[in-house]
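pls read this protein.

:::
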Amino acid sequence: MSEADHTYFDELITAATTRLVGDEVLLANVTGERTDFIRLNNNDVRQAGTVVQRRLAVDLIEGQRHVAGAFQLTGERSIDDARLTALLGQLREQRRLVADDPYLLFNTSPTSTERIEAGSIPEPDAALADIRAAGKGRDLVGIYAAGDTYSGFANSLGQRNWFQSATFNLDWCFYLQADKAAKNLYAGFNWDEDAFARKIDWSNRQLAALERDPINLLPGEYRTYLAPRAMEEFVHLMSVYGAFGQRAHATRQTPLLRMIADDATLSPLITISENTAEGIAPNFQSAGFIRPATVPLVVDGQYAQTLVSPRSAQEYGIPTNGASNGEYPESMTIAPGTVATSTVSEALDTGLFVGNLWYTNFSDRMACRTTGMTRFATFWVEDGEIVAPVSVLRFDDTAYNLLGDQLEGLTDETEVLLDTSTYIERSTMSSQLPGALVGAMRFVL
């Protein structure tokens, strides 16, 4: 993306502002991307292409009544001006039919910002050469997505915000047979050949272990290491169902209800924050409020703050901290611990090494009890060495055990995990998570 995209958005909304009527206020949000996609199978390119798109969403406000709409931008000023003018006319007509919104709140103190994270990403040909060299002789299956994403906010009060970042995301596995595959992910802002080589080396070690006959474990509790990708699946479920949202807390629907109603705690090793300063989500939200660099959610196992959207702020009479309407973390960080990442198998000693969890859901939401399956490479480890893969298991356990009483330690390094979703547009959600060493994890099937 270039400065031209930023300027185009600014000029488009400035022109639209002159066409407002009476006391109308216009809020506008643009999201866009230029993404190179490469899909691989059997270490060969099966599909490749580039997506360039821009989407404009506007909210037309008068008093406490408002109506929103959106359309794709073409980049042709005359066409986009005409479409925006027509949309504003339609919204104006629709607004006559809607009731006042008692929870409408938008930023009326203009604060303009600009943040651009350039990153260091190889050209698609160079990245593909590295990937195919790493997968030589393997059935490498995966998707590589890389490029710029951007978000902008503008309103008729003169506020302008822009956030842009360049990232890459390689989601792949070395496939063996049937349900056996060594899955891995390499993502971030700066492509590092040494870091990628370490990822490939670990996948090769997993693939070799998967060739051994699997072990069938009986239901029970096992000492377990949850790799960062497994942690992501577990905490993401909690997050999107209101673990950290003000509305879910106020209505007593949060999975962490016991932390606010019964004084329950997680392990003092757990500190969770919304870390906007180090994520790829914009540092502002759709109503124009600026997000703090960090929002502490859980500190040393104790609940600290909720994420408060403008609507919740209006409803419950508290300040907003720039959360989206969904009130879930978009740039989650769990602080690392002291377990050496390079020797985590030795720290596990004997037990389960779980690289991925799958099909997670709540078995008792109010108790934050979660169930799900192991998938891909899950191994039985003895004396710090992989013995054999383990057949698929179903777990059923609570956050108060896995991140509480049974948590023995977190790794001293966190992994950058970018959401691989590309539905409608590339996701800008991310997390930085350590692995977790758990004294006993409950498996039921």
In short: The longest helix spans residues 77-95. The CA atoms of residues 167 and 188 lie 6 Å apart.
